Known about the structure:
The structure holds two protein chains of two kinds.
Chain A: H1 3-20, H2 25-36, E1 40-44, H3 51-61, E2 62-63, E3 66-70, H4 77-81, E4 82-87, E5 90-95, E6 102-106, H5 113-125, E7 127-130, E8 133-136, E9 142-147, H6 160-163, E10 166-171, H7 177-187, E11 199-200, H8 201-213, H9 218-229, H10 240-245, E12 246-248, H11 252-268, H12 276-287, E13 292-293, H13 295-300, H14 304-314
Parallel strand pairs in A: 1-9, 1-10, 2-11, 3-6, 6-9
Antiparallel strand pairs in A: 4-5, 7-8, 12-13
Helix pairs in contact in A: 1-2, 1-3, 2-11, 9-11, 9-12, 11-12, 12-14
Chain B: H1 5-45, H2 53-74, H3 79-89, H4 95-103, H5 110-124, H6 138-156, H7 160-187, H8 191-206, H9 210-227, H10 232-248, H11 257-266, H12 273-290, H13 295-313, H14 318-365, E1 370-392, E2 394-416, E3 421-425, E4 427-432, E5 437-438, E6 442-446, E7 454-456, E8 461-463, E9 481-483, E10 493-494, E11 509-510, E12 521-523, H15 524-541, H16 546-559
Parallel strand pairs in B: 3-7, 4-8
Antiparallel strand pairs in B: 1-2, 1-5, 1-6, 1-11, 2-3, 2-4, 9-12, 10-11
Amino acid sequence: MNPEQFTGLLEKARGEVGKVIVGQADLVDTVLMAALCEGHLLLEGVPGLGKTKLLATLGKVLDVDFGRIQFTPDLMPADILGTKVLQGSDFKFVAGPIFANLVLADEINRATPKTQSALLEAMQERRVTLGGETNPLPRPFLVMATQNPIEQEGTYPLPEAQLDRFIFKALVPFPPADDVVEILRRTTAGTEAEPEPVLDGATLQAMASVVRELPAAAHLLRYAATLVEATHPDSPLAPEMVRKYVRNGASPRGAQAIVMGGKAAALMSGRPNLAAEDIWKLAPMSLRHRLVLGYEALADGVRADQVVSDVLAAHPEPAPA
Amino acid sequence: MPLPDSVARLIAAARRRLSVSSLALRSFVWVGALAAAMCALLAIARYRVIPWAEPLAWGLIGAGLVGAVLVTVMRRPSQAMAALAVDRRLAGFDRVSTALELSARTELDRLEVSQVQKAGAWADRRTLEGFGPVMPSWKLVTPVALVVAAALAMTLIPSVADRLEAARRAEQALITQEANELEELARSAPPEVQEELNALIDELRRTETLEQAIAKLGEARQELAAAADPAAQAQKTALSGMEQRLSQNPLAAGATAAEQLRNLAGGLEGMSPAQMEAAAAELEARAEDFAGVDDQAADALNAAANALRQAATGAGSMQAAADALSNAADAVDSVTGQVAANDARADAQAAVRDSQQRLADAQGQGQGQGQGQGQGQGQGQGQGQGQGQGQGQGQGQGQGQGQGQGQGQGQGQGQGQGQGQGQGQGQGQGQGQGQGQGGAGGGAGAGGQSGVGAGQGGTGAGQVPSGNGDDDFPRDPAKGTVFDPVDFEPGDEVRVRLDGTPIPGEPTGSTQGQGQRNLALTPYSDRFANYRDSALDSLDRSVLPAGMQDLVRGYFTELEP
């Protein structure tokens, strides 16, 4: 697959998603970028903004196995991963809903940490080990999760280890009024449009290969590494806000997310190489959920996005490698 | 894969542009900072002489420019930096920098090849338009230009310090010139004079102002004068007289007196007693010339004369006469050497005086001329009393008492020197009786270019001739007498003229009891030379403008009997 074919397929996917999702172009691109990176995505937004709708639509556009898990406090790991059932004289593994190419983990923070932890191996290793038996997950394997930031009752914050496994954390904004009108027009009259599947699993993987192969200059890789290093409070590169408010900085997965997402963004923009502009764009969604803020940040009302902005301001441009 | 030409061209152009712009920026920053510092220095130097201020100021600014060029050359932007600058400033989205990096690799995959090719296509349509200005922002250029203009203005517009510095340099040049001239003189001077002159030259070169140099020269003149033999002039006169006499009436063959004496010693055998007697008489007469001037020479000549007489009468041997003549020749040679040394010292003294005079004249004409006029009044009282009793030829007793009072009034003129300060010297003439000393004269002078100066008249010297009570002494030297008090203590030998006939070198008595009347009176013509010499010596020792010196000399010329 060449970049031109890549762009063509991507445009088709955007068009199909756009049949259902009004506006939210950046959010749609973020979701597609995560898919092209074979990365897991965490969408955070208040209820009613179309998070689940977007991911469900993506499941339709991608002609892949789609599984949806509604996370609740009483959800058990076996409800996700599957279990072994006695059939005759043998125990046979019955796969759970995780065994799909695209898994929608709706309201993931409503499950208990124990259940959330069931996803750790699946998300990182792309396999499930149960009763000494390891079963690989299908490829591509994508977890698209949603969470509501405002409801604290009956929710369990995701542990850092699991947050780190999400390539991006996208914030779902409230749509502008014109988009809301269009949403009303589409959803309150007649029948809703139905998207057509345009990308199958193999094609998606081929596109992911193109993303990986996209050239990235050394100075840009170093720039991404510099940004991640600057999120660590004990680093000499760290700006004042990081030293004051951040308890733990981003992991190397943050740099990987920046570079991979940047490559995808470059291809989606029709460019044949990674650029600093891609890094600037990807840094917030790649780093915001990987920063562990201290109590000082909570007291001063400082959010992770402000810290990332400060890091970018401290290191505005890449230096020659 | 080679870098596409379009990309390489764009990078090279960007590199040049970055070099020039960084040079411009660096130059403006450095020059601005240095010029600001130098402005402060030049501002101070306008009111305080700092000779190195301007060279340092412009030297540092020049060094700043050179340093900016050197640093720019040494830190020329690399290709990678230029490629990054193109990507950032021309919205290249890292196409150029990525292509530059990929082109350095030996193996590229299809996407990388595609990237380099697309970067080439992109660069093909690009120029450096929009890359950014070469010159720094006017916010930097304007203040730097103002600071440099201020520094330039402070350099070009003369200040008080500049004038002072120019005057100092001019003075230094004059001092150096005088030192060079003295150095020339020192080369041909005898060693002892040469040593003194060299020491003076060294000190002169270290002086910084004309005033100091003039003072040094004055000190040197005094030292030279003190070192001079007071009898040198008399020696010279006596020697000159002897040489002249013997050239007209030679004792023997020879160009000089010493040679004639030696030849005479060698030719005694062929001389008659009468010739020897005549030669002895001549030698005695010449010995008289040296009496009281150079006793050694006089004694040697007298001894030679005696030896000749004895040889003529047969009372002494020819050899003794020849030896005595040789001794006399040696004594004359010695006098000749002393006279020559003193002549050299006198020449040096004259040269130092001329230098001092030139520097004094230059000082008066230098940074402004001031003139002062002073009036001096002199009052003097003289009282002389002599008592003496002389015994000798003849007999005489006398009592003399002279008393006189004199008042001198004088008017002086002064010439100011230097910047706003004048120095004047007053001179007074007085008439009266007794002895008087001039009072102090005061004057005021106006400075020249640099403003008003205050002149101060020098001491007015009222010279009141000694007298015997007459209101005015007669100009007739034969009749005129002046009061010439003798500085003596009781018991000192004094020469007293009892009958008016000079008896050089012969004491005729000692002061005991009452002196003779008019003992201290002496012919005016005898003492005039002393007054004149003393006054001219004073002129030599003091710094006076040439005009004033001529006035004094003219005065004594007029009075000369």
